[in-house]
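Project outcomes to date are best conveyed with an example. Our students and postdoctoral researchers have been running inverse folding experiments weekly, and each run begins with a structure described purely in tokens. The record below, which covers 256 residues, was selected by the lab manager from last quarter's runs and is presented without edits.
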């Protein structure tokens, strides 16, 4: 006969084996969608290049405030989860640094997403110097001169409620954005307007939509139905099977 102590230890071990891990117990799902420009797509204006013209003037640079793809997709829409207390899938822990490059006298990518505590490497791949001025509100501002082929490292201790502008004081036409959040649940639309936020916990979350030309996106037609979104916020149910918000049309008037 097993002793009382041995029986108790065996029961405890069996209980541990029976309990699922947090990752296997929870259900996770993706949110996706596509932002579309409602109307005739505008032609991007050429930028005036008046500094380092021999280097920067050969790149045919255009204004990137509003980038519309060939199929009317709206690029660079920022989508993020506003919920502060949210379970994070263990596979989404941020480890690798994020890179923002000064490339061809523009910021590449135009909008970059980084988590608090994650390193942001600001590179300069151009043969001329650049000044990368990150205008954060809650974090100390970063304003660094980066020589040709150089780089600097920035990290953020606090999330930012809105994307932070990054500019170059040497080349005033250069502008980009840094999205700083305290969890991995954010995305930036590609040139076709597509976005996907992966592995969210199943249940309701609050999304926020933002674009540099329009600010918070308050009026969106989703699958043919107008949706009023106050300050760009919308509650969305996350399904383990995936939640596709479908085609999300932005009327041209929101970009005026």
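After processing, the design step wrote out the following sequence:
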């Amino acid at each position: 006969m097993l002793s009382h102590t041995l029986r108790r230890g065996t029961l405890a071990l069996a209980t541990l084996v029976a309990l699922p891990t947090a990752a296997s117990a929870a259900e996770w799902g993706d949110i996706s969608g596509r932002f579309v420009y409602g109307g005739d797509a505008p032609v991007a204006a050429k930028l005036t290049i008046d500094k380092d013209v021999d280097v920067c003037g050969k790149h045919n640079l255009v204004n990137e405030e509003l980038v519309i793809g060939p199929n009317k997709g709206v690029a660079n829409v920022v989508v993020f989860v506003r919920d502060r207390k949210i379970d994070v899938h263990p596979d989404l822990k941020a480890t690798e640094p994020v890179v923002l490059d000064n490339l061809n006298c523009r910021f590449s990518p135009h909008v970059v997403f980084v988590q608090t505590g994650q390193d942001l490497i600001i590179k300069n791949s151009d043969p001329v110097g650049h000044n990368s001025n990150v205008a954060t509100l809650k974090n100390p501002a970063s304003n660094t001169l980066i020589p040709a082929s150089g780089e600097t490292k920035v990290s953020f201790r606090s999330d930012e409620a809105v994307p932070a502008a990054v500019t170059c004081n040497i080349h005033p036409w250069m502008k980009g954005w840094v999205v700083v959040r305290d969890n991995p649940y954010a995305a930036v639309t590609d040139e076709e307007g597509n976005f996907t936020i992966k592995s969210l916990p199943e249940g309701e979350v609050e999304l926020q939509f933002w674009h540099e030309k329009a600010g918070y996106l308050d009026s969106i037609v989703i699958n043919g139905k107008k949706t009023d979104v106050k300050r760009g916020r919308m509650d969305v149910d996350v399904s383990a099977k995936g939640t596709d918000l479908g085609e999300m049309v932005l009327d041209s008037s929101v970009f005026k």
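The radius of gyration is 23 Å. Confidence is low (pLDDT under 50) at residues 1-25. The training component of this project remains on track.
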